[in-house]
Amino acid sequence: MIQVVHTIKEVREQVKAWRAQGLTVGFVPTMGYLHEGHQSLIARSVAENDRTVVSVFVNPMQFAPTEDLESYPRDLEADTSLCDATGADLIFNPEPEEMYTEGFCSFVDMNGPTAELCGKSRPIHFRGVCTVVSKLFHIVTPDKAYFGQKDAQQLAVIRRMVTDLNIPVEIVGCPIIREKDGLAKSSRNTYLNEEERKAALILSKTIYMGQELVKGGMTDAKELIRAMKENIGTEPLARIDYVEAVNFDDISVTDTITDNTLVAMAVYIGKTRLIDNFIVQGKRDAKGVSSC
Ligand code: AMP
């Protein structure tokens, strides 16, 4: 039976007891309202580790004041059932005060990979992500941690952070899980009304279109992006935040589509900002994003 704890002390004690038995620990950090995308990460962790910890924490530090911190969907009961059914052992669900005690003033900041894509439109986002994920790594001390390609820039940022800060954890990237009609699963999809839900298909349709153009031999990034933007423009409810081609390793802008190019987009459907992407895999597998 899965255990749900709310304090850092409880997590540390449980992990210490597992370690004393020589067990390995996998970790899946989430903001909750779990769906099959999260579940694929949890299932992979369960398969590859003796014990699995899932954190459910809507991290205030990664939301700007204008963003959806208050309205972000929450359902710990449903999350607990999903984690339990998938074989996880422990949920860590702290209050913000547990993570950020009075006087908190230390942050993990990053240049380089945070400069483009979501870093441009959400300038404080990755500082919040890096700070909370490094805190969670110190609390859970996992052998492996699982992140989705759905947030490809975040995956690249976390890889860079654990390298730069010598955090002893293996980062495992997992593929994007989609609805049957193609829409990438996201907790934020619940914001969409019926009309917007239909309109949101423009993201995955444009991703598929981009993949086809690349398969067909297109290598000019500007040309590809122009075609993708034009396609998104056919959907009246869509407003483009960005469509960009970058190197998946360091998130630097590229003019040429090659192996390991990340083609990423953020698009508003009404008031809801959705993201999607693909990584050009060519002859070799994209780093770490093997099938879950
Ligand atoms: P979130 O709860 O949105 O912070 O996501 C927690 C983790 O689940 C992140 O590593 C996400 O990339 C991953 N994730 C979210 N949606 C999906 C999806 N549709 N497919 C695969 N991974 C996902």
What would your notes on this structure say?
It is a single chain. The protein has 292 residues and is an alpha/beta fold. The protein folds into 2 domains: 3-174, HUPs (Rossmann fold, 3-Layer(aba) Sandwich), CATH 3.40.50; 187-280, 2-Layer Sandwich (Pantoate--beta-alanine Ligase, Chain: A,domain 2). 37% of the residues lie in helices and 19% in strands. It has helices spanning 8-20, 36-48, 76-86, 96-99, 118-121, 125-140, 152-164, 194-199, 201-215, 221-232; strands at residues 3-5, 25-30, 51-56, 90-92, 144-148, 170-174, 238-247, 261-269, 272-279. Strands 1-4-3-2-5-6 form a 6-stranded parallel β-sheet, sandwiched between helices. The chain has a 3-stranded antiparallel β-sheet with strand order 7-8-9. Helix 6 (125-140) crosses helix 7 and helix 9 (201-215) packs antiparallel against helix 10 (221-232). The longest helix has 16 residues, at 125-140. The relative contact order is 0.14. Mean pLDDT is 96; it is low at 283-288. The structure holds adenosine monophosphate. Adenosine monophosphate (AMP) binds next to helix 2 and strand 5.
Secondary structure elements and their pairing?
Blueprint: E1 3-5, H1 8-20, E2 25-30, H2 36-48, E3 51-56, H3 76-86, E4 90-92, H4 96-99, H5 118-121, H6 125-140, E5 144-148, H7 152-164, E6 170-174, H8 194-199, H9 201-215, H10 221-232, E7 238-247, E8 261-269, E9 272-279
Parallel strand pairs: 1-4, 2-3, 2-5, 3-4, 5-6
Antiparallel strand pairs: 7-8, 8-9
Bound molecules: adenosine monophosphate (AMP).
CATH fold type of the largest domain:
Rossmann fold
Q: Write the CATH homologous superfamily of the largest domain.
A: HUPs
Q: What structural class do you assign from the helix and strand content?
A: alpha/beta
Radius of gyration: 19 Å
Number of helices: 10
Sheet having the most strands: 6 strands, parallel
Bound compounds, each kind once, are:
adenosine monophosphate
Indicate the proportion of strand residues.
15-25%
N- to C-terminal distance: 24 Å
In the sheet with the most strands, the strands line up as 1-4-3-2-5-6
CATH architecture identity of the largest domain: 3-Layer(aba) Sandwich
Secondary-structure element pattern, one letter each = EHEHEHEHHHEHEHHHEEE
In percent, how helical is the residue content? 25-40%
Total domains, how many? 2
Determine and state the CATH class of the largest domain: Alpha Beta
From the spread of the alpha carbons, the general shape counts as globular
Number of strands: 9
User: Which consecutive residue ranges, at least 5 long each, have pLDDT under 50?
Assistant: 283-288
